């Protein structure tokens, strides 16, 4: 698993009498969007590169579009983006396809149009999903987004600042005929607490967020597949797209982070209130046995 690989990499670097900087690699800038998962992943990527003798710095708090443009322009070198975001927002694709297709189409488009190298999925999906408290969903008999549509005109929905302007929202709204009484843009870190406290009825949750379980929220099924898949993809900018030292250092992360592990890491920060950096060290150094 991830931890065993991590320990081996760090141990082998420490075992070298004189760990030298990787040849021909300057400082690598890692970009991150505005939420916990992205900060955790940026820390993890930096740690792997540092263990391989590669210097890093971070550019955090980027919007989706800003981060993508920065990557294409080599203003940042590494970015984690999600297959459905690339497919729906940048490629403007509206067709419904399976996860493998969306990921391959996104990788091909990134390479052809932007010289961006998609190394692969990190092993988990962070999908948009509509969520409610279990109690409210059961009270109204709502299990799917189609069920929700029947009650939407009496209900309020909160989404992150980008959501109601994204093509995914228009597609979801049109697929189910959703007409909410109130749409409230909100900082994504506050949405879970808001629905838990009954301030809103529904939120646009992220499937890898640890607060879904912590607040006992129900994720509504999407029978019409209005949301695309959102595999977390590791992307390299044109300048470092074929840099062997960078690729070798990051390769173990591809397929190396299962969803449950990402949810736990997010939960430690967002629910348990552990400082991100202290928690990151605990996460990275934890024995691999419980996760395989």
Descriptive account of the structure:
The protein is α/β, with parallel strands linked by helices and 292 residues long. Helix content is 44%, strand content 17%. It has 13 helices and 10 strands. It has helices spanning 2-15, 36-51, 64-72, 83-90, 99-114, 134-140, 145-151, 167-176, 188-196, 211-214, 244-250, 259-270, 276-285; strands spanning 28-31, 56-59, 78-82, 117-125, 128-133, 156-159, 182-185, 202-206, 217-219, 231-236. It has a 5-stranded mixed beta sheet. The protein has a 3-stranded antiparallel beta sheet with strand order 3-10-4, with helices on both faces. Strands 1-2 form a two-stranded parallel sheet. It starts with a helix and ends in a 7-residue tail after the last helix. Mean pLDDT is 88; it is low at 1-19 and 278-292.
How does the SSE layout of this entry go?
Blueprint (H helix, E strand, L loop, with lengths): L1 H14 L12 E4 L4 H16 L4 E4 L4 H9 L5 E5 H8 L8 H16 L2 E9 L2 E6 H7 L4 H7 L4 E4 L7 H10 L5 E4 L2 H9 L5 E5 L4 H4 L2 E3 L11 E6 L7 H7 L8 H12 L5 H10 L7
Parallel strand pairs: 1-2, 6-7, 6-8
Antiparallel strand pairs: 3-10, 4-10, 5-8, 5-9
Brief sketch in words of this structure:
The protein has 13 helices and 10 strands.
Poorly predicted regions are 1-19, 278-292
**H and E order:** HEHEHEHHEEHHEHEHEHEEHHH
Seen as an oligomer or otherwise, the chain set is single chain
Number of strands: 10
* Radius of gyration, whole Å: 20 Å
Tags for this entry?
292 residues, alpha/beta, disordered N terminus
């Amino acid at each position: 698993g991830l931890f065993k690989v991590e320990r081996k990499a760090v141990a082998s670097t420490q075992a070298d009498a004189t760990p030298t900087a990787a040849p021909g690699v300057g400082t690598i800038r890692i970009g991150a969007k505005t939420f916990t998962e992205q900060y955790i992943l940026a820390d993890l990527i930096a740690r792997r590169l540092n263990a391989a003798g590669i210097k890093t710095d971070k550019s955090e708090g980027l919007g989706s579009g800003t981060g993508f443009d920065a990557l294409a322009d080599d203003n940042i070198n590494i970015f984690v983006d999600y297959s459905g975001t690339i497919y729906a927002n940048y490629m403007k694709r509206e067709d419904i396809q399976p996860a493998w297709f969306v990921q391959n189409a996104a990788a091909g488009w990134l390479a052809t149009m932007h010289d961006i190298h998609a190394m692969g999925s990190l092993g988990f999906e962070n999908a948009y999903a509509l969520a409610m408290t279990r109690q409210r969903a059961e009270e109204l008999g709502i299990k799917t987004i189609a069920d929700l549509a029947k009650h939407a005109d009496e209900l309020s929905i909160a989404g992150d600042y980008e959501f109601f302007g994204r093509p995914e929202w228009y597609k979801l709204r049109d697929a189910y005929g959703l007409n909410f009484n109130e749409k409230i843009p909100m900082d994504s870190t506050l949405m879970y607490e808001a629905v838990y406290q009954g301030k809103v009825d529904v939120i646009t949750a992220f499937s890898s967020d640890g607060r879904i379980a912590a607040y006992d929220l129900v994720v509504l099924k999407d029978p019409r597949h209005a949301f695309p898949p959102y595999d977390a993809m590791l992307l390299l900018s044109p300048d470092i797209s074929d840099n062997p030292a960078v690729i070798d250092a990051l390769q173990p992360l591809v397929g190396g982070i299962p969803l449950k592990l990402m949810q736990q890491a997010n939960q430690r920060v967002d629910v348990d209130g552990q400082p991100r950096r202290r928690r990151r060290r605990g996460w990275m150094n934890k024995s691999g046995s419980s996760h395989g």
